[in-house]
Amino acid sequence: MQNVSALLTERRGEYLEQLFTLLRQPSISTQNVGMEACAEWIVRFMQSCGLDARLMPSDGYPMIYGERIRDPDAFTVLIYGHYDVQPPDPLDAWVSPPFEPTVRDGRIYARGAGDNKGQLMAQLLAIKTYLDAFGELPVNVKVLLEGEEETGSPHLDGFVSRHRDLLRTDLVYTSDGPMHDSGAPIVLLGVRGMLYVELTARGAAWDNHSGNKGNIVPNPAWTLVHLLGTMKGADGHILIEGFYDDVRRPTEAEVELLKALPYDRDRVARQIGYPTLDLDGPTYYRKLSLEPTLNICGFHSGYGGEGSKTIIPATATVKMDMRLVADQDPDDIYRKFCDHVRRHAPDVEVRHLGAMRPSRTPADLDVVRVVTEAVRTAYGMEPVLQPSLGGSLPDAVWTKTLGVPSIIVPYANFDEANHSPNENIGIDNFLGGIRCTCHVLHALGRFAGTVG
Amino acid sequence: MQNVSALLTERRGEYLEQLFTLLRQPSISTQNVGMEACAEWIVRFMQSCGLDARLMPSDGYPMIYGERIRDPDAFTVLIYGHYDVQPPDPLDAWVSPPFEPTVRDGRIYARGAGDNKGQLMAQLLAIKTYLDAFGELPVNVKVLLEGEEETGSPHLDGFVSRHRDLLRTDLVYTSDGPMHDSGAPIVLLGVRGMLYVELTARGAAWDNHSGNKGNIVPNPAWTLVHLLGTMKGADGHILIEGFYDDVRRPTEAEVELLKALPYDRDRVARQIGYPTLDLDGPTYYRKLSLEPTLNICGFHSGYGGEGSKTIIPATATVKMDMRLVADQDPDDIYRKFCDHVRRHAPDVEVRHLGAMRPSRTPADLDVVRVVTEAVRTAYGMEPVLQPSLGGSLPDAVWTKTLGVPSIIVPYANFDEANHSPNENIGIDNFLGGIRCTCHVLHALGRFAGTVG
Predict the structure, then answer these.
(1) Which SS3 state, helix, strand or coil, does residue B274 take?
(2) Residue A216, min C-alpha distance to chain B (Å)
(3) How far is A310 from chain B (nearest CA, A)?
(4) Alpha-carbon span A126 to B114, nearest angstrom
(5) Is B190 at the interface with chain A, CB within 8 A?
(6) Are B428 and B128 in contact (CB under 8 A)?
(7) Coil, strand or helix: which one is A353?
(8) Model confidence over B144-158: pLDDT tens digits?
(9) What is the set of domains in chain A, with CATH numbers?
(10) What pLDDT, in 10s, does the model give residues B208-221?
C-alpha cells in the first residue's frame, strides 16, 4: 500500500482540482438544476478512472452505473453514492458562493462537498489510485450513483429490483454522512426503518360552544386521547397487537458492540437539551437503535392561542412516526396499526404518509470484520462499530431487496454542515476517504483470493 | 293592569325615542369608549323614572345604583343589568351605523339594542309606567347596572360583597339574552359554572429528531395523553377524585321541567352540525345543564402542517374547561384537579385561566311560581321553564354571595345578533319587556301584601 500513499501525495493537487470541477456543477434534484450535465461529467470521469460506465434510465433522474469485472465469479463489492445535492438556500448565509468551491482553514466549502460529491469522488479516485498502484483491482467493483437521494430515493428500490442480475454483489459499501465527533471513523451496520401516519378524528361539522353544547357533541380530541392511550402504556410499552412480533433479538455480538460505543451522558444530555437524562451507554444505544418507537410528532385540535376559548373542537389530528427495527416490515406494521384503530375507534381516519424498511447487517460476518480492520488500518484509529443508527436511510434496498450485507463508512467531518449553508469537507477527510476505500478494496481481496 | 297597557300604547313613540337616545351613546367597556357619559345619562334617566339613583365607584367602571323603597321591611326585588356593550367591529358588516339606531321591519338596529340596553330600558320604563299607572310600586325595587359585563364582570362579586346591606333583597331579576326560538318567553333558574385550566408538559429544551433521539427524549404529548386518560374514561365518566362529590341531585320538580322543555332532535342536530345525535329531550337537557363536563378546548404539540415532520416535540399544551353544576365550587374543583395532576404527572404545570360558580334557584319556590305566572300572563304564552343553562353567567353572585333566588327572563328576540354586526331588538320585544316587568312587579306585590 506504500504505492497508494505515494500516489496520493503526488496527486493531491490534481485530485482536489477534479473534485472542484464536480463541485462547480450544480445538481439540485428538487429544483431540476444541472442534473444531466452533472451525470454526464461523472460518467466521463468514471471512464477515466478505469470503469466501464454509462447512464441508465430510471423513473426519475438517470442512474449512473459503472463496473470493472476481473472475474464474474469473484467477490464483488457494489459502491453506492448520490450525485444530487440539497438546494443552497439561504444564499445570504454562505461565506463563499455554494457552487464556487473555496478552501479555508483546510476545508473545501461548497454545496455537496460532504454530501455526497466529496465522498463519491473519494471512492472513484480510490479505484483510479488502486489501479495505478497495483495494475488491477483485487475484487470486482460495481458503482451505482443515483440522482434522487435528497428527495427520498423514490425510484432506487424499483431500479434495483429490475436490475438484480446486473447489480449482483457480495457487499454494498456506502460512504455518506459524518464521522464520529471524536474524529474516529464509524462502521455502521444498519438503520431503523420508519412508518409515518396521520390520525384524524371528527366530531361535529364545526366547533361548538363548550357551555351551550358541552356533554352533547362528541369531542374528537378526547377520541384521540383515548385511542392513543390504547396504543402505548405510560411505561412506554407499545400495545398494538403484534407490534413486537418481528423485532430481531440483538445478537451477543451486537450487545457487545453497544458496550464499546463511546458515550458521555452529560454531553448527550446537553446535545438533546434534556439535562436529567438518566441512561447508561449500552441502554442508550439499545433503546436508540435496536428498539422501535411509537412517537407523537404532532397533536393539534381546537384553540391554541393565548388565554381561553371555550369550544368543543370539530376535529383533532395526530401525526406519528414509528421507528422500526429489523425485521419489522412497515407494511405489516401499518396493517396492524390500522387493525388496532378499527378495533378501538373505527371512525378515526388513518393516512399513510411514508415508510422506510429497517436494515441490519449481522455484526459477526467475516466481511464486517475485514472491512472494520481495513478502516482501522486506514485511519490508524479504532472505528466506532455501530449495529444500527437511530434514524432512517434507504439501506434495506441492499439488505432486503438485494439480500446482501451493507456497510456504511462515512468519510466527511462531523461538522460538514450537510443540508446547511457553508457545507464543507476537510481536505484530510477527502484524502483520507480515498485512502480508506483503497484499504477496504485491498482487504476485500482476500475473499477473491487476490490478496492477503 | 289596563292602565299599564293604555300608557304603553300612548307613550310608544316617547319610550322608543328614549331608548334611541341611550343607543346613540357608545359605551364600549373593552375600549373605554363613552362609559362615563353613558352611566351619567342613565342615572339622570333613572331619576326621571322615580328612582333614587347614583353612580357608585367600583374597582373598574362605576356601578349604577338606584332604589325606591316603600317600606324597608317589605319584599324587595333587585333588578340587574349592564350598560356596557361589545365593540361594533366589523363595521363594514353593519347595514346602518351601530350607534345610529335605525328601524327596519319592526326592529331597532344598533349595538346594544338587545344586549343589554333595550332590556334594561324595558325594566326602567316599566318602573316609570307602573308608578304612573298605580301611583306607587307594589314592592321595594333596587336596580344595579354594571359596566363590565362584556369583560367578564371582574368587579361585580367584590362590589356586591362590600355592599350586602345596601343590596339586601328577596329576589334578583335579570333580563338578558334571547327568548326561545319559538317566540316563547324563557324563565331561567340557573347556569353551569366554569373552570378553565391550561396544562403544559415539557420534555427536552427543544424539538429533537425522532429518529436520532427516538426512545431517549421524553415526549410531552404522550405525557399529556396519559395524564388525560387518567382524568376521564372512554365512557365519559370523570375520574378526578371527588369531582362529583358536590353535584346536586336534580329535584323531582327539575326532572319534571326537563320533560316539558321543547326539543326537536333533528333541529338540534342541524344546529350543532352533528347529524347522528342520538339523545331524547330529557337526557339532552339533563346532560347539557345539570351534569358537569371535562372538555378539551385545545391540544397543541409539535408539528401541525402539511405532510410529515419527524420530531419529538419539546412541549405540549392542553386547554380545558369544566362546566360545573350546583353545588360544585370552582376553587374546590381546582384543588382536586391540581391534586390529580400532582399524583399522576407531577411535572406537568397547571395554569388557572378563569372560573365562574354555578347557580341554581330551586324550581319549587313560591317566588318562581309567581314570576312564571306573571310572565305567562304578560306574553299570553306558556314560558319555557329551564332549571339551568348549559353555559355560564355570573349568576352565583346572587345565589351564593347574596344567597337569594335569582330568575332570568330574557326579553330580546332569538335572533338579536348580540355580539355580532346588525344587533337588534324587535320593537314588540322591547315593549313586551316593559309589559312583562310591570306584570312581574305587580305579581310580586302579593309577597308585600300590596296586591293579589
Answers:
(1) coil
(2) 7
(3) 6
(4) 85
(5) no
(6) no
(7) strand
(8) 999 999 988 999 999
(9) 2-191+359-448 (3.40.630.10), 193-247+291-356 (3.30.70.360)
(10) 999 989 999 999 99
